[in-house]
Amino acid sequence: MVLSVAESAFIYDSLVSSHPSRPDSRKPTQYRPLKANCGFLPNSNGSSRIYNPDGTECISSVKAKVIRSNNISDLINVEINIFGEKDNTTLCQHLTTLIKESLNDSFDFNALKLTDKYYFQLYIDISILYLPEDFRYSSYTFYSILSLISMGVYLALKSAKLPLLVSDKKDFEVEEEPTFSDDWEVSSYLIPRDSISTFQPALVFIVGIAGNTVIIDPSLEEEHVLEHGVCVTWSNSKITTPIQSLALSTSNNKAIKPNLVIKSMDLVEQVAGDVINALNTISEQEIDEFDVVF
Amino acid sequence: MSRFELFSPEGLRVDGRRYNELRAFDCSINTHPHSSDGSAYISQGNTKVLCLIRGPSDTLTTTSGATASSADEPTISVSIIQPPYATTERKSTSRTDRRMAELSIIIKRALQQCIVKKNYSRTLIEVSITILQLDGSLLPACINAATLALIDAGISMYDYISACNVALYDTFPLVDSNSLEENDLSFLTIGIIGNGDKINLLLMEDKVPLDKLQKLIDLGITGCHNIRQLMDNVVREIGIDLLSKKL
Amino acid sequence: MPHIDNTLPIPNIITLHSLLSGNPPLRPSLRQLTEPRPLEISIASSTEYGHIEVKLGETYVSCKVSAQITSPYEDRPFEGTFAIGTEITPMCSPAFTSGVNADFSTAAPAIVPATAISVNNIDSNKEGQTSATAATNNINNNNNNNNNDNAVTMGGGAVMGLAADQAATEILLSRLIEKAVRRSNALDLESLCIIAGQKCWAVRADVRFLNYDGNLVDAASVAVITALLHYRKPDVEVIGSGEGSELVMYDEKQREMVPLSVLHIPICVTFQFFSTESVERNIKGENANSLVNNKNYIKENSDNDDDDLERMDIDNDAPRGSNEIIIVDATAEEELLSQGSMTVTLNSNKELCQISKSGGLNVDSVRILECCQIASDIVNKWTKEIKKVLAADIEKRRDLRAERVLSVVNDRSTE
C-alpha cells in the first residue's frame, strides 16, 4: 500500500491530536476483530487457528514428545513458517526467538515434568497461511503478526492435552521408559484449569507510538505513519520481558521517549485482562466435530 | 508385515471399513474469502488439506517473480506446504524436497487438463496447498481440494477432477487407503476428470503384478466417481444457498 | 524452411500431424504405432566394467556405474547406498540449457516451444498450404488465441516433450528412473553391506544424455540397469574381528571382481498420446454410450464444419471407439506434438514396478491396460537383448583372459 503525502499527514495528525482518532475509528485500546478456534487437529496435542478479517491467518500446533533430559532450555521448541518466505530468514529467526524467549520466561516447567528423569518436550509449529499482499513489501510490517502468533500459541497451549502417565513417577532407580494410558478421556490439560496451579503462557502485545499517543494493534495504514513500535510481553498478570522497541515504520526514526514506553505498558495493562479472558473463553469451548473449524 | 491385520478374513480393514468404503469425507469451499480468490478445505478421514487459489491474475505482478506468460494457456503454479506437525511423528519437510516437487508438477499437469485454457491466456493461477494433517491419500486429497478451490475461484473448468488411492492387499483392492495401509501395501493413485472412464492421472510407485492392475483401476474409478459425487453435492448445496440469498 | 530456434520446421509438423490423424494413423518412419526403434546396447570400454552406451534410434545415452566404500546411513546400518544422477545438458540437444534453477513449479519455458499448432484443414493440398501459413504465424507471433473451435489443437502439453518445461522434465525424469530402479529394489542394498553400521558400498549410476531424439526415459532405464548388471566391484575381505578388524580390497589382478546383486530387471516403456479431437470432446464425449452420442454430437457440429467428416469416419471405425492414438517410443518430433505421456515400468516377471501418467490427455482405462500388455512384450524383448549383450561380453572377456583359471561367473545376478 502506498499512501499519498496528504493521506499520511491526515492519519498522523488525527492520531497525535488531543482526542486521537484512528482511521478505522477504533479506540486506542481496541483490537481489530479477530476470530479463533482451537483443538481441531487430532494428530497434535493442541492446535489453534486465529485470523484477522484482512486474511492474515495463523495456524499453530503443539506436539509433545517424551525426552530424557533436564535441560530446561530445550524443552520448548518453536518453528515458524511464513507463507511466501523461505525458512531461516533472519525475520523468521527473530520472530522465533522472541516467541521462544517469552514462553521460556513465563512457563511453569513443572507442567512438563513427567518423572524424575523424563520430561515432555514441546514442539510448537506455527504456519502463517496468508499475509496480505501489502505486507510483503516491507519486512518491518511482519512484526505486526507477532501479536497474532503469540495469541495463536497461547490458544494452542491452552487446548493442549497430555496423556495420563501410568508408570511410576519415581523412576530414579529403575530403568524403564514412561508408559501412558491409551484412554484420552483421562488425559489432562497441559495448563491446568484449576485456579491454583495454573499459569499463563506469555502474550505479546504490539503498541504503536505517534507523538504522545499510544495505540494497540496498529493497522497497516497506521504503521505507515507511526514513529515507533514497542512490543510488550504479558504473562501471569504482569508485564514481563522481553520488552523491545520495534521499527514499525521506516519513515521517521526518532528516538523514543522513556515516558512513552511507560505509557504503552500502561496501555497493555489495561487491555491484557480482557484479551486473556476472551482467549480463555475460546479455549474452553469444546469442539465436537473437528471439521466445523473450516 | 505389520502388527495390524490390514484386511481380516471377514473383509474388514484396520479402521473397520469394507474394501470399497471411503473414509469420512467432508469438504467446504470459500473457507478463506478474504485471503484468496478461491479456497477449499477437504478432509478424508484424518487427512486434512487446505487449498488457496489466487488468480487468474496478471502474470507481471506476481509474488513469485515475473514469469513468462504463455499466449494460449494460463501459467499455473502449484506450491505444497507440509508443516512439520502434519504427520503423527513430527517431521520437517524441506521445501526443496524432490518428492514434493514431483507432486506439485503432477498436480499442475492434472489441473492444466481440466481448466478451459483458452479463457485464461497470459494469466497466472497460483495454487497453494497446505497439508494440515496427513494420514494417507496425500495426492488425491490435494487434487480434490484444488478442484473445489478452482470452482470456488470461478475458474471455468470442463468438469471436476477427482482422485483417490487404491491399495492392493493380496488380491483385494482397498479404496481410499490410510497411512497404515500405504506403509505396508502397494498403492495406486487414480485421477479422473468428469464422470467417464478415461484416466487423467495414474501413479504407482510400488510393485504390483500386472494382472491385478485392472482390479485396482476399476475400483479406483468407482472411488473417483463417488468422491466426485460427494464434492458435487456440497458445491450444489452451497450454490442453492447462495442463490436463495440473492433473491 | 530454416529452423526457428529449436522448434521443428513447419512442414514436418504438418506432415506428422496429418499422418498421425489419418486412418489408419501412420508414423513418418512407417514404424508400427506400438513398435519401438531398434535398441543397440554397447559396452563402452573393453577393460572397465559398468560403462554402457545405449542407442534407441537417434537417442543416445551413456551410463557409468561406480562404487566406493563409505559408512552407511545411521537408520539403515545393514544397507549400502545407491544413487542415480541424471542431468540433462545442452550436449544432447541445444534445446536444453544446463543448470536450470530449481524453481520447478513456476518455471517458465526455457525456449518457447511449438506450444500449440492450429491446423485447420489438412484435407486438400491447397488448404493445407494456407494452414501451414497460419501455423507459421502462430509460431512466429505466438499470440494467436486459438478461439477457432474448428481448430484441431495438438501439442501444448507435450508432457515429456523437450525443453517446454525443462526443470519439470528433469525432476520427473530423475524421479522416474529413481522409482523404476531404486524404489523397486532392483539393486539388493543389503548385499552392499560390508560391516554392519560401519562400512558399506556406495554405488552411483551416472547417466549422461548424449543425443536427444525423444524417449530419454526408456533409454536411460535400459542404460542404468544394464550398467548395474555389467558392473563388477572389487572383492573385499574383512580380516580379523571386533576392534582390530581390517578391510582388505583386492584389485582385479588378485581376485575376480564381484558382480552386484541385481534382483530383477525393471525397464521403462513410455507411451505418447495424441488425439484429433478437442479437449472438451475428450472429456465430455466420453460418457457417450458411446458411438451414438458421439455421432450426434458430430452431426450437430458438422453443419458449420465440413471437415469434421473425416473424424466421423474415424468414429465409425469400431475398434477405435475412443479417439486416442497411442504410440510407443516417440521421436523428438512426435514428443513435440504429444498431448500426454505415460511411463510404465515392468520386469520380465510381469510385475509392474511403477506407472506414471501425470495429466495430459485422458485415456480410457481399457487402453491403459492394453498399453501395459504392449509394454510387457517390449520389456521381454529388451530384457533378452540386454542379456544377450552381457553374455557376449562375458564370453569376450573370458576369451581375453582364457589363461586365468579363477574365472567364476556368478549367474545369480541375471537369473
Notes on the protein architecture:
The complex is a heterotrimer of chains A (294), B (247) and C (415). Chain A is elongated and about 70 Å long. Chain A is of the alpha+beta class and 294 residues long. In chain A, strands 1-2-3-5-4 form a five-stranded mixed sheet. Chain A has a four-stranded antiparallel sheet with strand order 9-8-10-11, with helices on both faces. The longest helix of chain A has 27 residues, at 258-284. Chain A has one domain (5-169, 178-285): Ribosomal Protein S5, domain 2 (2-Layer Sandwich). Chain A has helices spanning 5-16, 90-106, 146-159, 220-225, 258-284, and strands spanning 35-38, 46-51, 57-68, 76-82, 118-130, 161-162, 188-189, 203-210, 213-216, 228-235, 238-246. In chain A, β1 and β2 (46-51) form a beta hairpin. Chain B has one domain (25-246): 2-Layer Sandwich (Ribosomal Protein S5, domain 2), CATH 3.30.230. Chain B contains four helices and ten strands. The longest helix of chain C is centred in the last third of the chain and has 36 residues, at 365-400. Chain C starts with 9 loop residues before the first helix and ends in a 15-residue tail after the last helix. At the B-C interface, β4, α1, β8, β9 and β10 of B face α3, α5, β15, β16 and β17 of C. β10 of chain B pairs antiparallel with β16 (351-357) of chain C.
Features:
heterotrimer; A: 294 residues; alpha+beta; Ribosomal Protein S5, domain 2; four-stranded antiparallel sheet; 5 helices; elongated; B: 247 residues; five-stranded mixed sheet; globular
- General shape of chain B: globular
Could you state the CATH homologous superfamily of chain A?
GHMP Kinase, N-terminal domain
Structural class of chain B: alpha+beta
Structure annotation, total helices of chain A: 5
In the residues of chain A, how many domains can be counted?
1
Strand content of chain B: 25-35%
The helix content of chain B is 25-40%
Subcellular location (chain B): Cytoplasm; Nucleus, Nucleolus
Protein name (chain B): Ribosomal RNA-processing protein 41
InterPro entries (chain B): ExoRNase_PH_dom1, ExoRNase_PH_dom2, ExoRNase_PH_dom2_sf, PNPase/RNase_PH_dom_sf, Ribosomal_Su5_D2-typ_SF, RNase_PH
GO molecular function, one term (chain B): RNA binding
